[in-house]
Amino acid sequence: MLSRISRSFATNQTLLRSATTSRCWASTLVLSEPLNESITPAQTQSTVTAARSFGQDIELLVVGNDAPTEIPEGVTKVYHVALGDRLAESVALAIESVATANDCSVVLGASTKFGSTVIPRAAALLDVSPITDILEIQDESESPTTTILSCELVGQEDLISTQDFIPHTYFFVRINFEKSTYASSDTFVRPMYAGNVLCKVAIKDPTKRKVLSVRPTSFDKAPLTAVGEVVSVEVEPFTKAEWVSESVSKSDRPDLQSASTVVSGGRGIKSGDNFIILEKLADKLNAAVGASRAAVDAGFCPNDWQVGQTGKVVAPDLYIAAGISGAIQHLSGMKDSKCIVAINTDAEAPIFQVADYGLNQDLFEAVPELTDKL
């Protein structure tokens, strides 16, 4: 029997927030994703939408050689730091400089590979704890809030009810909750355990600056408008690390994270050469091509195709999963898709539990036939 392992969680994740603060904050600073030839990425448009929740002026920080020609609606000021290499440490220094000089109460980025490397570093420089991968920003004064008190691993024989347990490969996780009521002007909802649990987190000290990252697929894209004045900012680059090189793969297909349609393959595709079957379907649909971690680890396709908890998070209008069983890690990266189509020979595959349409058939027969009919 698995021995029980208890670990206490801090009960201070959701605490009373003061109605007054000791300083006057000015604005919310949004970190832009790297521009693509002066074009503002869709992830930045979604981050600006999230920034509106704070009811402050929204300022945009753009780091790189190019300044934007268009910006999301609602941005009142644009800061441009001309750092060509975009080293994470240098970008974090730029955030610290701009946020401090302009008294920004919130620093907000996207939960992308770029944002995930920069936001924690910026939080450390600003001496605050970041809250990452936010799915929702709520305004819930006097609302019931769930606080995690403790967590323990238990053997299956100790399982009494599945209601309070999260299934895992070899064990079950029991989470002990406590519901309390706290006054809070903004509460952040973020996932835990690969998206199986959503927790609400509030800032302990409202007088401190907030450093956050949001999942872009959880927020609508703010429309773009012509840029006005761009303020150039000089920041000393980080000197203890050196940018060596960058290898960027280019494709005529849409970007995976912003595509309206995604065709993904898993281990069931059997080889890298067989991905041509999915690529032909993707070309017919003007879709991006994705993959499960199993397919990437097997060497069937490049790393930047990976969809999932440790890859890219997508939420297209249509997601086609061919030969993907549906591991939790993969589902957490695509389950917010508006329509999910699963093709798999295993009728018990977990992917069918989240699919809107399921086809229990060999992908080597189904996908070419579907492609021919388009």
Summarize the structure.
The chain is of the alpha/beta class and 374 residues long. It is built from 8 helices and 21 strands.
Break the fold down into its secondary structure elements and pairings:
Blueprint: E1 5-8, E2 27-31, H1 42-51, E3 57-63, E4 70-72, E5 75-81, H2 88-101, E6 104-110, H3 113-125, E7 131-134, E8 136-138, E9 143-154, E10 165-167, E11 172-182, E12 187-192, E13 197-201, E14 210-214, E15 224-226, E16 230-232, E17 261-265, H4 275-285, E18 288-291, H5 293-297, E19 318-322, H6 328-331, E20 340-343, H7 351-354, E21 357-359, H8 363-373
Parallel strand pairs: 2-3, 2-6, 3-5, 5-16, 6-14, 7-14, 17-18, 17-19, 19-20, 20-21
Antiparallel strand pairs: 1-9, 4-15, 8-12, 9-11, 10-11, 12-13
Helix pairs in contact: 2-3, 4-8
Biggest sheet: strands, sense, closure?
7 strands, parallel
Structural class: alpha/beta
C-alpha geometry: globular
The total of beta strands comes to: 21
Q: Please, what is the oligomeric state?
A: single chain
The CATH architecture of the domain at 21-138 and 203-232 can be named as 3-Layer(aba) Sandwich
Enumerate the spans where pLDDT stays under 50 for 5 or more consecutive residues. 1-22, 144-177, 179-184
The number of helical segments is: 8
Radius of gyration: 22 Å
Helix proportion range: 10-25%
CATH superfamily of the domain at 21-138 and 203-232: HUPs
> How far apart lie the N and C ends?
54 Å
CATH class of the domain at 21-138 and 203-232: Alpha Beta
CATH topology of the domain at 21-138 and 203-232, by name, is Rossmann fold
Mean pLDDT: 82
Strand order in the largest sheet: 7-14-6-2-3-5-16
SSE succession: EEHEEEHEHEEEEEEEEEEEHEHEHEHEH
Strand content: 25-35%
